[in-house]
Amino acid sequence: xxxxxxxxxxxxxxxxxxxxxxxxxxxxxxxxxxxxxxxxxxxxxxxxxxxxxxxxxxxxxxxxxxxxxxxxxxxxxxxxxxxxxxxxxxxxxxxxxxxxxxxxxxxxxxxxxxxxxxxxxxxxxxxxxxxxxxxxxxxxxxxxxxxxxxxxxxxxxxxxxxxxxxxxxxxxxxxxxxxxxxxxxxxxxxxxxxxxxxxxxxxxxxxxxxxxxxxxxxxxxxxxxxxxxxxxxxxxxxxxxxxxxxxxxxxxxxxxxxxxxxxxxxxxxxxxxxxxxxxxxxxxxxxxxxxxxxxxxxxxxxxxxxxxxxxxxxxxxxxxxxxxxxxxxxxxxxxxxxxxxxxxxxxxxxxxxxxxxxxxxxxxxxxxxxxxxxxxxxxxxxxxxxxxxxxxxxxxxxxxxxxxxxxxxxxxxxxx
Length: 416
What we know:
Layout: H1 2-9, H2 19-27, H3 37-40, H4 44-47, H5 55-70, H6 74-77, H7 83-94, H8 114-134, H9 136-155, H10 161-184, H11 188-204, H12 208-224, H13 228-241, H14 248-265, H15 268-283, H16 299-312, H17 316-324, H18 332-348, H19 352-365, H20 372-388, H21 392-401, H22 405-415
């Protein structure tokens, strides 16, 4: 038996249909959470995309998600997002009654105080910095491990209602980060499930602003994967749902997310109106009154969103103008995206030589990034470059680009 366990631990074999269920029973977790997909087929609880009806449901599902993700449960990690789930979640949140609180707490659970909440917030902040600097694939697994092993027991611990509300808000924020990192790794179904659980936790923390930001993240993802109408609806729901507690920066971001979706739909007039509203809102901001987690959204970030919009409506010159104002110098991945949009805009404007020069700048920026989204930007640029033809500038660019890891990865994505 010791030899058999050693073989499982070393990844040389997997528990069979006799030992697998015994392991699950002894550990008190499902086969899916152990990564034993050959025993489960599909774990309906993990793979469903419904909005949790109670805080207890949210606790149970999010803990299962963390464990299954940590163990590489492929039906979850490789799952696709559910289109109806976006509509259901936004509607359920908009019409939700007063925030709930767990009806019964586990008397044997550990006592949780504001110090514990502060530790989660600080740790989440550290992971957010890593995500910003190195991309979502760099430390995603470590964040999920922290959530699963250190944070999960606190959700079912003992706490007063004020501490509980603060705990739910902080765990929602950190789960939102796990969703963003999963989205950046292009694990889209998994990311959507994290966003859904984070939204429910934010609801029960009575943090309307954070909940709106989670809907905005859903909108961002929906636009990226091609669900433009749903993306616009999510951005509008975010704006409507926090109207009573809105801050200028949040409103600016929500308008910008709506603009991104409208640009992809092709509604240029509505897109420009949404960008105008975003600009007006941002001009009114006072960072001392904004949630700390939204203060990154500044003029450079809005310029980057506008550059995406004008690129997508084939207004190349305007895209170039906005992209040139979008380099913050402090957010590596955001600067990579803005630089690639600038390169793409130059290409669409007919200046392939300048496009190649700028794309090389992006590749230098992206050398430390582990991000499937970054690779997808390069894949799209490759495809447009192929349409231009074979010039001396493009040949020289391809030769230099071949030395960069992200460019090599984009070639594999293109041919994969």
